[in-house]
Amino acid sequence: MYDFVNIIIVAIAVFVALLMLYVMFRFNERSNPVPSKVTHNTVLEVAWTVIPILILVAIAIPSFKLLYFQYSFPPPDLTIKAVGHTWNWSHEYPDQGINVDSVMMRDNEREDAIKAGMPADQVPRNLAVDNEVLVPVNKVVHVLATSTDVIHSWTIPSFGSKVDAVPGRITATWFKAMKEGIYFGQCSELCGKDHAFMPIAMRVVKEPVFDAWVAALKARDKKKAREIIRNAALDLDGATRTADTRPAR
Hints:
The chain is α+β, with helices and mostly antiparallel strands and 249 residues long. 36% of the residues lie in helices and 24% in strands. The chain is built from five helices and ten strands, in the order H-H-E-E-E-H-E-E-E-E-E-E-E-H-H. Strand 6 and strand 7 form a beta hairpin.
């Protein structure tokens, strides 16, 4: 769609530029000292009305098709409800009956995590959180986004996901992560003084690892859950994916 519309844009721009050049050279005072007094041309007026309409129709038809597919999600393997707060995220797993509150790590918490064995490149400053969200690899994940206060925006660029979290409403997006890794995102809607400090950290793991993590949270064994995350991080060491796809520093 992008390429198709760009071809039309370039064609129109080139046509108008050539037309302007032709008019400037063909109808300037020196080349055309006696200007025409013609004020109407029915064929020309019909053409410059009908042709733009046809162009818009040519753009509209595939646009409507694209809009339809934008909201036609594949059946989910997992559903997550992302709830924005001022200023952090919580992620609920309705089918699993668990909830994960995530708050950005302070510098001293980040240093403690690194000392505890987390690879430094997987806990980047201002992106790492105290409780990561886990999803299984190669599974379709539906994300239902909402907010408890102001408008936020749940965004993970590496997944191509960006959707507003609006108080009192549910908006939705989906993704299918096909590579294990730790992926970071941030709130992308100005939401107050700590808008820049409410990151999202989502770790994509093998399904058995995900199942073990869910079981640990159901058993309220946070220590076990963190150990599972740390082991997954060590297995992944050197394969970090950040919000802008560059290696974390």
